[in-house]
Request: fold
Amino acid sequence: MARSTDHVARVMDTLSSGSEAARSRLAASWQRSWLKHGLDPSSPPTERGPDLDRLRDQRQALDQVLAVAAPKLDDLYAMIGHCGCGILLTDAQGLVLDARAGAADAEVFRSWGLAPGVDWSEAAQGTNGIGTCLAERRALTIHRDQHYLAENIGMSCIDAPVFGPDGGLIAALDVSSARADQTEGFNRLIEGMVARVAQAIEADLFRQTFPKALVIGATREARRRHGLEPAGQIRPRPVVDLLGREDGPAGLEGAERAAVIRALTRAGGNVSEAARALGLGRATLYRRMKRLGIEDRS
Reply:
C-alpha cells in the first residue's frame, strides 16, 4: 500500500508541473491519461474480464494478420517464455487478440488482465506498454512504476508497433512480465527481439498481400528508406528508380529494356502514353516489347 501511495504522489506531482510533459514522453503520456482519458492513478483495481464479442469480431477482421503472426509468436515464446514472460498481440486499438504464456504463469497473467479480449489502450489503462506504443506509434518499454495506474506498477511491458502493407498501424506486439526480479537491463535484451519480430510480421504480411506484384507496395521501413508515400497506396515505380541502378541484361539491350519498362511503369501500363514518352509510335513500341520479352499488362 505504501508503495502504491508513493507512486500516486509521484504521478500527481508530475501532473502538477507545467513543464514536465514537454521534457518527458513518459510525463506526456501521464498527462494524456489524466486530462484526455480522465483516469485517476489511485483508482482501485478493477475486474479485467474479456470482451468476448469484441474479441470474436476483431479476430475475424484480422484473421490474416493473426495467421501470419502466430508462428512468430510461437518462436518468440520459445526463446523467452521460460523467463516468466508472456507474449501478446493486440489490434490497433489495444485489444489483446492472441497470447502465449506458460502453464505456471497463465493464472497470473489472467489476473493482471494480460489475456485475449482485454483492452490495454491508454484510454482504458493509462500509460502502459501496449497503449502507449500504439498512441505514440513507436517501440518502447514501460517498466514497473512508469505505468500510470498504481495497480499496474508490478509489470514490465516491452512493445513494438506492427504496420500493415499500406503503412497503417494494425497491431502491437507485447512482451510482459509481472516478475519482481525482472530488471531494466533484462528488458533491454528483449527490446531488440520484440522489434525484429514485429518487423518480420510486417515483412511476411507484405509478401502475402502482394504475392505476384512487382514494386507497387512497400513496408513502412521501405517507404521511409526510399522516400515513398508514408501511408496508403503508392504510385507504381520501377526498381531502378528506387535503387538507382540497372538490373537485368547488360549492354544496349539491357539498357533499352530497362528504359521501356520504366516508361511503361510510369505510364501505369498504358502503351500509348509510354510510346509518346519514348518518342515512338505505338506499333513500334509493341514490336520492341515483343523483341525484348516485355509482356503487355494493359
